[in-house]
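PROTEIN DATA CARD
Card holder: BTB domain-containing protein
Chain length: 248
Origin: Aureobasidium pullulans EXF-150
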Amino acid sequence: MSFRDSISGPVARIVVGSQAEEFLIPKKILCASSTYFKAALTGQFMEGNTQKIVLDDTDAEVFRTFVAWLYQGHLKSSEIGKVFTKMDDFEDHVTSMLLFADMRGVPDLLNDATTLLLDYLEKTGLARSLTIQRVYMLPDDFWRSMLVWLLFTEEIHFGSRIKSDDIHQLPKAFIVKVLQETFGIEQQDIRMHASRFSQSFFCSSFHKHGKGENCSPRALNYYDGPVTVLLPSAIVENPSKKRKTAQR
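Structure generated from the sequence above:
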């Protein structure tokens, strides 16, 4: 089904959040993007009969970003940044999109949110403790393992939370993994830049795809807000000048 075809026809009413905000969205586009919405709107339960779904446990801003993504085809960090002007809030919103996409069966959104998160972290520094907690809330599979690998690699080389009072904010499994890898190893000024991974490696490692499915270009789901670390292009000639990422 083409995008043009998906935006016509009957609409579904989605009531979201504690304030019961109502969204009217073409049924076709919801069913095409999400296994959850397809099952709910085409099944024999109440939602299928009324074409109305209540998501009172979902944040309205998260759902609003989802709807924008449905129509735009990618996540626009410039628009998200206008709502979440603080960097920590921006990061928390992106990880909320990961959880939403996983819960509602929206694999393409999961991939795009992952791309945006990794680009954001590359440009701003260490992931927040809450980000690591939320990654561990996702299903334990190869995709999550690759995310965890990138996060604990960053922590090994640049973090100091394992040695501080902030350790209690990190998942126990993450702490154990970092301690196992860092026993007797001093921090180094080396960093894994996700932007340097080839498109094929990036997609096979950090995206979830079925056979024959195309991968959305990384160039569409990029972070264009404030940058707080030197990027690969600025450190190619003299990597030793790269400053360590700030702890957040």
